[in-house]
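Re-running the complex after MR caught last week's input typo. The corrected sequence lines follow. Everything else is unchanged.
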Amino acid sequence: MRVAIIGCGTMGHLHASMAASCGLRIIACGDKYKHSAKVLAEQYSAAASDDSMAVIADPEVDIVAICSPTPTHAGYAIAAAEAGKSIFCEKPFARTVQQCRDAMSAARKAKVKLFVAHVVRYFQEFEAMRAQLAAGKVGKPGFVKLYRGGLFPMGADGWFRDYEESGGVTLDSMIHDIDWLRYTFGDAERVFCQALRRSEPEAIDYSTATFRMKSGVIAKVIGTWAQPGGFRVETEICGDKGMIQFNSDETPIFTMKRTAPGETPSTIVPASPVPKSPYQLEWEEFIAWVRGTRQPRVTARDATEAVRMALAALESAETGKPVKL
Amino acid sequence: MARIGIMSFAHMHAYSYAACLDELVEAELIAIWDDNHSRGKKAAKQFNTAFVAELDKFLALDMQGVIVTSENVRHREMVEAAAAAGKWVLCEKPLAPTVADAKAVIAACRHAKVGLGTAFPVRYSIPMMAVRQMLKSGEYGEIYAASCTNNGQFPGGWFAKQALSGGGATMDHTVHAVDALRWMTGREITHVYSENGNLLRHGIDTDDVGSLHLEMEGGIQVSHVASWNRPKSFPTWGDVTFEIVCEKGVIRVDAFNQKISVYNDDAVRAEWAYWGGNPDLGLIQDFVAAVDERREPTVTGVDGLRAVEVTVAAYKSAAAGKMVRI
Ligand SMILES: NC(=O)c1ccc[n+]([C@@H]2O[C@H](COP(=O)([O-])OP(=O)(O)OC[C@H]3O[C@@H](n4cnc5c(N)ncnc54)[C@H](O)[C@@H]3O)[C@@H](O)[C@H]2O)c1
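Corrected-run output:
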């Protein structure tokens, strides 16, 4: 199967390498900027274009991997569906719920497979937590806390910093935990959220939400793009018989590298290597689905629900009121 | 030498306060009164002091201050009795379960011209004092947001009986965070939203989890978790943590994260043995000094009231399903 990468930034590079290590061929790269497309295309001897729609329409292409900024996802997904391609789309599925629905119905109509890459469902530590939960280790869960974040990403043309484009930390990053929350604890009843969404004098977003699940479970979800550096994930699941905690600060490897002899500023990097990257695992599952051998653990409907929940959180932050789901 | 008494050992903090009084050369624990006689007698024996069964006899003793560590709903009657007897009072948190009771307690002490303090030892935590200093220094710029936790193991007993506590984990574990936030920022809390529920512990009639969202003056947004979510097997009693988001950086503080891990095959759990400073000691030392100097304790009854207002608003919010203005 031959893959086209649309959007050749951070995720475009990552997904090209994941698809390649699954044995797929990257044959075309599309980006708003020809140069960005070229830089990636050269690594795979692929074609580069600044006309992403033309790349999608290319009859040689079987799979379209959408890795462009969030507001562009739905348009490319619909075009890819209409061209009969299998679709691998980065999360968030789209910028609005309507866009999610339009993309879903285009895929349904064209009978193509549309996969939304909610990668946290493939993270080993999150799978391990689900296994412990399923084994009854915490008993009946009642309280969940999910924390994720670090510095405010920039992105091409600083698109992450435009709240209209990216939806800030709530839509872009908290959505990982929102999806996992729903995956693991079912649907939510309502949400209350506070979100900083500052641009001046510094881009700082800090979002804290309480989701009340239909089961009664109370979930505190915190997303931060407020740190000057670093990235951490922290989770806690409390039940009537126990508790599970995870903290990404606790890693097997911790390196400190001197920038130059005698110089003080150094880069400090924690690392936690795994046998297979979760991004690779999601590609494997997507490919198995395209080949008709397996159902993926995340559906486009799940991804739409995640967008709906994240946007409800933002609505609550805007109005100061809880929002019913 | 300040002569201090303790009224009721219903709250386990009484044991820590008694130990602090023992440690301070400038103070003496001269008597214990407790409506539960056997508990009071036992404590008196443990701390090598007198047990007095009758309240009026206890209050007639030559003693300048009392520490009230009863069930929440009984704070009012005890503080009023102590104040009427002219004693300085240090009252366990929450000052009272209702705003009316908290105000009555303050009025009683004002009327009797005695000092009233609320037991918020977090103000004497050395890591917390250091963080407050960082915030005050201005090097972090403006404060934008915070998220805090006060999680704990399930205390059981009267804590989880509405009629004696006036509320569950949200009542028990919101006030420390609220007081610390006010103290660190110098701002008041203006709005409260809360989701709470009884989701973890069985057979109780109070909440055991509260997930709060506060708004402070100047638009500071605050997330707080008040809970009894730590299982019996957890290595320590709980935590007091803050993540403070500022213009120029982020400060994270886990006030009791000065510990060694202890693994002992005779115990049911691994244990975190704490080796940091004892905030209770600072609190008691200040109360003893206040008694001695006949001044207000540093953390006042009004500080206690402000925290009660937030807790009460949290329950109102949870019942009404909307944000409540204070
Ligand atoms: N799953 C994850 O862990 C994860 C992590 C980061 C980002 N993401 C998601 O991946 C997507 C891309 O994020 P990123 O970090 O790679 O961003 P990025 O800014 O690094 O890359 C985006 C690329 O798309 C290009 N682009 C912009 N507009 C375009 C358009 N209209 N058509 C085609 N290309 C266009 C840009 O030039 C850039 O090269 C976003 O939806 C983001 O939310 C997911």
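None of the earlier attempt is carried over here. Chain B has two domains: 2-121+280-299, 123-277+308-325. The CA atoms of residues 194 and 314 of chain B lie 5 Å apart.
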